Structures are given as structure tokens and as C-alpha cells.
Amino acid sequence: MLLRGLKRKYDCGDEENESEYYRSSLRHFQNASRRRESLRIKTRNEVGGELSVCLELEKRLSIENSLIQGVEKFVKEPTHGLVACLEAAKTLKTSELRRDMLKYELNKLKRGQGRLPPCISSSSLAGLSLSHIRVPLSLPERARVKKSGSYAVFCLARIGSQIYDTALLYPIEPGSTADVSFDDDLIFFSRVPHYFELLIEVYSYLVPSNHTSLPQLETPRKIARSISRVMGKSILKRGIFGGNESNVPKFDLTATANLTLEDCSNEICTYELYVEDLNRTTSTESLNNISSSRALPLFGSMCCHLAARPYCCEEEVYSGEMTLMHQKRASSSSTAKKVWGSLMNWKLSLWNDKNSKGLGKQSLVDIPVSKDTTITDKKGNLQIRNEQVLWEFKFEHDSVMLSQWFQQLSQHGSNHRKWKHAADMKVVSPGSEELPTRSFKRTRSKLVLFYNDV
């Protein structure tokens, strides 16, 4: 197996190491794909209005439809391995959910109900980071462990049409495994308002002890060809024997968790997990026993790290020239001074001019702008009050600039109040991986050393 960028072959050794390398490579690819998708959603251009958003949703919808068709063609072949069939079933489940949510958002947008309220700007949105997902398992009965096989488990994280899946973990044996851990998965959500609801779903599939009982592995290629010769390909395509859907393992929704802004934290926390009742769809006692043996034994809780980072903490909200009059108290004297202001990260930073900011010089002063800041427009002057300190800015004959600064500062303080404790969190932004740096030691040439000696 060749690794990209390396002029050597990778020696996998035995089959176990090869399978582990395949899973780690697949997980790395999925993390990179999620980062690209998150960056694309964050930097999408909405200048074209609803028409451009509709075109983007239709493009994403066509991609999901093509992916579903590709998976359906993939599962037609009965010679794929067990892991490949499980991965195909997971991809099919994720794509179907994305397709349904994209259709729902597209219909809402066409009815004029899919856009964010006009009062919510891009600076009021944030990015979410979900990582270190761990689902503890309960200890099942010994008789049940002997009868049942191993489980294939994965999770889905959903906010609207942003649906991301974790890696598929297999095999999971409840008798010998304490929990299901997705430590290597890192999920990002973009353009999320403060009233978001993050839905985490746990899906599981019981793989019997005898792998040949799976629908994909029951019929060899020779038997399939003989059946097609006798019955005809047209009859098989119509799905008399159950169609293509019977060839895909059906993952069961085992548990769900609903997280909001109150659940954001700087540490890994434990949250309540609602366990689904798989027996509700059956009526007879025998079918109930089958469903109960298929259910993944869960402890009823989960652990994860959820953090939020508003965009106004990383990107400049507004900037422009201002006339500063610094007053410690209302009765003190002041002197007007032209400065350049930049609003970002819950503070208003001031420089002498725009070039000083561009050169990376230290700001003259940083004025906090938070939920405790009072911003008023008094006789054409903009006043910012923090406790007993008053900052006053004059805008002579420029009512438009005064209105813009007043609106942006008021919105900035309101965002700090809306995001609560998440306003000061730090989130690893997608694409900001720390790359190994190579240190170069600068040396002088022999010619320069020779002339110095002379």
C-alpha cells in the first residue's frame, strides 16, 4: 500500500494491523471532509439572496441523491466484506437523513420561512465544536451475551441540515467493552445561532455470531448468477425477493441526546441519554424477545465536550475613524483626538491611525464592550460607560457613522449577553491544525567567513 507523499511502501504486517490502518485512514479522511464542509458553510456567500441559497441547497441535494444511488449500486454485489457492508449502510442512513432535511429547508425557503431573522447578523452566529464522545455500556446478562453477537455502532450529530457522522466502531462486545469511545472524531458546526439545539443520535446494529447470516453474505456470486439465468434479470430488478433494501443492514436508533447552549463547557461533561424502546414496534412475546436481544445495552448517559465560539471573537465586526474624548468622570475635562477604532472580541481597540493597526502595533487602549456596558447616543455624541469610567466619541456632521457605531456596539454587547458563558470559550477552528514546523539554522557562507578572516 502506497502512502501519498512518501516514496516507500507501508508494510501492514498481518490482517489485524491492515484493518486498523484502514480504519484510521478512513477516520482521518472523514475528519478532513467535515472540516471542508464546515468551512464551506461558514464562508458561503449570501449576496445573491434567496436565489443563491436555493441553488446551493439544490446542489447539495443532488449530491446526496447521487451518493444514495451509488450506495444502492454498491450493495447489489454480494461479494463485499462485512466491514464494507456496514460502512455502506452507515453512509446510506446518513445520506437519507441529509436528503430529507435539505428538502425540508428548501421547501421552507421557498415559502419564505427559511431565512434567519433580519436582526441576526453573521457576527451574532458562532461555530460549535463537538469532540470526545463516549457512551458507557451497561453489563448485560451472561446468557444474553452468549446468544448475541457483536455490535456495530456510530453516532450522528445534527443541527438542521448540518448532519455529520462519526466513525463506525466494530466489533463492540458489551460483555468485554466498558464504553463506546469516539475520541478521534472532531465535528464542527458553522453559522449556529445562540438558540441552537444539537441532537446526538446513537445507532447500532447487531451482527450475529455467524457472519454468513447477513443478507449480503448469504448468496454467493455463482448462486446469484444461476438465479438470474432462471428467473431473469427484469424480475430480480423489480425486487420480488425484497429488492435492494433487504441487502443493507438496518441500523436501529438506540438513544438520543439533546444539547443546547447551557450544555457548553470547557471540560468534558456527562449528559443524560434517552434510550429508545425497540420493543414498541412488536406485539407478540417472541418478537419482543428478538427485539430486546437486538438492543445495545446502554447505561443511560454519555460524555462529550461541546464548546461554542462566536464569530465576533475571531473576526473584526466593524472599524472606522473616530474622535475620542476620554473622561474618567462626567465632570472631568476632555481633549478631542482622532483615532482608529476596531470592534472585536468584546472590546473596542483604539490606535492612532489605520496604518498603526495594520503594522501590528500595540493598541492605545482597549475599551470592554460586554453585557455590563451601557451605550447611549447623547446629543450626537456616542458614550460608552463601564462602571465609573465614561468614554465619549464625537461624530461631527456624520450622523451615518454615528448610527453605524451605535448599532454595532449595541449588537456586540447584546451578543455577549446572549452567548452567556460560551462567550469566553476557545474552540479549535476547522483547518487550524498545528503543522510540524521545520527549523532552519541560518549559516554564513565560506566566502563571507574568508573575507572576515582577511
UniProtKB/TrEMBL annotation:
Residues 128-264 form the Anillin homology domain. It comes from the Eukaryota. GO terms for cellular component: actomyosin contractile ring. Pfam families: Anillin (PF08174). One of its GO terms (biological process) is septin ring organization. This is Anillin homology domain-containing protein.
